[in-house]
Structures are given as structure tokens and as C-alpha cells.
Write a structure and sequence with these properties.
Layout lengths: L4 H21 L4 H21 L7 H32 L1
């Protein structure tokens, strides 16, 4: 049975986090690791949207920024819910 896109997304995300933690454990600062991940994501998002030869116009950049903002909002909402649950469990 093949995995759903949601399962693939979750597994791929965890692989990136594992790699980031490996790099951090090699002595690279977390701020550098985070910035490098963001840069890699921006490069890859540009490739997905415009290919190797093209670049994003301002509206394309806004679409990528909006997608990133949406992901960040979802993650922060989950973190708040987890914290609230932990506080209720105490």
C-alpha cells in the first residue's frame, strides 16, 4: 500500500529535522542551521514554481511567503494546543 501525501510529508519533514539536528550536533549554531534550511527551502520553492532557468516575480514570491506563513501559523497553533494540554494534565 502506498503512503499518502500527508504521510510522505510528515516523514520527509522529520528527515529534514533529523539532518538539521545532526548538523547542529557537529557544532553548527542553530541559527545557522535554521537560516540554511530556510534558504534551501526558498531555492527549492523557486525551482518548483519556475524551474531551474526562471525566477519568481513579486506575485510568485508573495505566494511562497503566504504558504510559509500558513505553515508557521499551523505549527504555532499546534504548539499552543500541546502546551495547553500539558498544563491541563498537571
Amino acid at each position: 500500500m502506498s503512503k499518502t501525501e500527508a504521510q510522505q510529508h510528515h516523514e520527509t519533514m522529520n528527515r529534514f529535522i533529523d539532518l538539521a539536528n545532526e548538523i547542529k550536533n557537529e557544532g553548527v549554531g542553530t541559527h545557522v542551521v535554521s537560516a540554511a534550511l530556510m534558504t534551501a527551502s526558498a531555492v527549492y520553492a523557486s525551482y518548483v514554481a519556475a524551474g531551474n532557468e526562471g525566477g519568481l516575480n513579486p506575485s510568485g514570491i508573495e505566494k511562497v511567503v503566504d504558504a510559509y506563513r500558513h505553515q508557521m501559523e499551523q505549527i504555532q497553533e499546534m504548539k499552543r494546543a500541546e502546551l495547553q494540554q500539558k498544563q491541563q494534565d498537571q
